[in-house]
Amino acid sequence: MNATPADRSVLHVVAHQDDDLYFMNPDLVRSLQDGDRVTTVVLTAGEGDGVNADTDDPARGAVPPDFAGYSTARGCGLRAAYARMATGDRNSPWRREPVDLVPGFAAERFTLQETDGVCLYFLQLHQGAPTERGTRTRLHELWDGTSRTQATLPVRGCTVGETQHITREQVVAALTALLAHTRPTTVRTMDPDPEHDGGKEEFVCSDHADHTATAEFVLAALLRHREAGHNPVVEHYRAYANRFWGYNLDPAAVTEKGEYLATYAGLDAPPSCPHGTCERCGDRQLGPDPYRSTHMRSAAYRYSPTAGWLRLGPGGRLNAFGTLAGRLAFWTETGPASGEWKGPYVLGDGWLSPTVAVTGVPGGPGELVGLRRQPVVGGGVTVDVVHTVQDADGGGFSGWRTLENPDWAHGDGRRQREAGVPSAAVDAEGRLYVFVRDFAQGVSLRRRDTDGSWTPWQHLGGSFVQDAGTALTTGHGTVELYVPGKNTVWRWYQQESGGPFVLDDTLRTGRPATGGITAVDSGEGRTCLYFRQAGTGQVMAYRQHPDGRWPGSGAGLGGHGGTGAVAALWAPERGAREAYLAHRGSRGRLVASLPDRDKNVSGTHWRESGGMFAQAPVLAYDAAGAVVTAVVGTDGRLHVRRQLSPSVGAPPGPWRTR
Fold it and tell me: What are phi and psi of 227, to 5 degrees?
């Protein structure tokens, strides 16, 4: 990749002072270490109960609340953590100044003096300001219109000393102004549609309401930013829901994350605040051990990225698909195996979630399935599954057709919003199968038959499945679905083309980490799975035996840590360890293993290359049989690397950027 830090601007928008440290690291620290322009916006004052003392301390109940003091201490802690991440010195100084975002709404901006490319904005919306109704303000009430305004809570030493009363429109306009000012190539924010706690009989949302409202505000601002012609990559991070699934960070990443959280908590703070504003710098509610929080051990996308968004389409041209600023993005080769690309073509209206499923008849038009968020009467939001088909010549697309979703008929709109990232596959006769995790945290299916008609949604079963499935068309023309669960991988398969799906309860993969699975046909009617092991992040292979049985556990392949789905292509006459493999490593960059020229040389050969990228990488054979690797960088551009010759073991050529 030939992108430079000047090409990459990353904007984080969070609700509270520790959200990015818990839920977006290590992505955040990698962007800082790579020299990207990094801006973080904290919407609320994060004052909580106003007591800056260990939540496990039995004596904290006797400490009087100091809301402005606790917010001040948390801000100091966040700046110390950023300074340490960016410069290695927690005490690296900041320049502090007021900034008028929009008329009637000013915020504080802190710029790291050692580098003007690192900025923090504190908007200080008061989480619990008294209202005329005798209640306290909440960010989600400002978003949904229950509250007309929300007060700010100035911190000590604040350059914006007066309390402001802010409307919903001012928040959206302020974020839109910040988008215009920072011109981000990547936007990172919270989960707009968090899952419920599947272990409870009643509906209990797994996440903090401020996180959800923050994501809603960001999406509203991004729609306006898009109208001005800007199309950044958008990433949403799970928050409290991480506790439900296999931890996806390796021990080194957890240790590093813990060090920065310790700085935020003030565990390495000097005896007195260097700015003279805090009695105790840092968020002391975390206590002396940041590792006691389950938030430490994962960093996962809400819309689990897949490794299947590059495919050989009409005319022998490779096509790449993604989303930019909530719309379908499409890149295509200029000719068969040309290695030259054009695009992106950014298409459609509405708001499409970041991950789309890509399938189709081999060599034919692509069929895409995604999740679309759209407003409904009364001010709410619904999420439907949508489908589109590429034109026969590989050019444009028909419009999106709604497939509704498995919980469409239910009166509670919260159920509809939990629809999972779709998986899709086309069988040998052209039937399209669309799979989605439903509200019950099982799997539902909708099928388009050979005559073009669609069946209703059908619940296949399953429980506590992750939002990270993959569908595969086998060499026999049947379709299989693999979905990570809590302790192993779920599998549904067909015994004949067009037949019903049967649950296979014989898999014993071991516990998969959050973040996706890849299934490939490895010949002889055998499927091979690639996923990550919970707690270590290492790449695992799990290959079916020739007689159809499955092994008792997966095989570890290493892989330099990292998170997310593993891209895989089967190499002729090779084994599971000698496939073409690629994934997002611990530094956020491509880590790939290519088979050796000598087929007697076994094992993986991991090598890191390129710059930091978003989502997951992808691999595909082009029309000449050469392997092509592609990623979408945090610069918002497509980066492609092609084998120098179409033979097993041939090295990859240079990165090309589009």
Answer: -60, -25
